[in-house]
Amino acid sequence: xxxxxxxxxxxxxxxxxxxxxxxxxxxxxxxxxxxxxxxxxxxxxxxxxxxxxxxx
Length: 56
Prior knowledge:
Distance between the termini: 24 Å
Strand order of the largest sheet: 1-2
Shape: extended
């Protein structure tokens, strides 16, 4: 899927209320997955980054 500059701007404006909500009511370990049928708030309990196997 390729978005036009206008569509990217529209997505940015649509996301602003959700980003505001997260910053005001949640902590930094919370994220949201948005899908066509709804949204889900997730909370991480642990996270690691492993770069050993990433091809350049």
